């Protein structure tokens, strides 16, 4: 059965994984199709994310491709049977498709890591902060600012769920004053509040870091419980790009580990404070709060 409407990132990724496995097994599309009673063109459409694949056919293909990893197989099966529907469905035609793809990728994840250079991470933003970003970045006016802000606030529901979050924020983002001093102060206080949640870790990468950061831009990694099926979202000047090839996945998970090592120790409100106010992320955030006069 074919999909109706635009092909989502999950659908494309599912097809790409099938194509990669088939190619590695040395089978043609026609040969793979013969295993499950499909013609070669139907196999190609499946690998392009245009048509669905039932559990029985998926299992036959994975067996033929020599795929034995139970976690990976389970992850692919979840991708195949997903309807792609969720809270984000209410925002169809109100926000870009890439935003819907991001929400679905986050919803499928058990672990999310995020490095941001110039802005507070989206799921940690207050409404007034997000509104200030969209007011400055709306180009052709196709998408309403109110919808974009509402969508970003809805994304934050995942913080309440049983997932692990780790954020590394460059100090530059904490010095930005574009939302105004009052909003920025409230935003810094919000970071300290969110960091008290047991499933959230926040670190600051300071200007005084002793080595150059291993990434020139912001990125987000969504782990659905199988690293090989992770989604990497990289910000570019034009748009956010989604990646799922093994080399890019490995490279960005390594980058995040390196950023964690470069950043100040995580915010920990229970940690006793001694010495300079900037020796950890908690101290640096409080130092910046002191500098903002409201």
Element-level helix/strand string? HHHHHHEHHEHHEEEEHH
Write down how many β-strands occur, each being a DSSP E stretch of 2 or more residues. Answer: 6
Distance between the termini: 59 Å
The CATH architecture of the largest domain comes to 2-Layer Sandwich
Number of helical stretches of at least 4 residues:
12
**Oligomeric status:** single chain
Largest sheet, strands/sense/barrel: 6 strands, mixed
Class computed from helices, strands and strand pairing: alpha/beta
Percent strand: 5-15%
Helical fraction:
40-55%
What is the highest CATH level, the class of the largest domain? Answer: Alpha Beta
What can you see in these coordinates?
The chain is of the alpha/beta class and about 290 residues long. It folds into two domains: about 10-80, Orthogonal Bundle (434 Repressor (Amino-terminal Domain)), CATH 1.10.260.40; about 85-290, Endonuclease, Chain A (2-Layer Sandwich). Helices cover about 45% and strands about 10% of the residues. A hairpin with a 7-residue loop joins strand 4 (about 220-225) and strand 5 (about 230-235). Helix 1 (about 10-25) packs across helix 3, helix 4 runs antiparallel to helix 5 (about 70-80) and helix 7 crosses helix 8 (about 145-155). It starts with 8 loop residues before the first helix and ends with a helix.
Q: What key phrases describe this protein's structure?
A:
11% strand; alpha/beta; 434 Repressor (Amino-terminal Domain); Endonuclease, Chain A; 294 residues; 12 helices
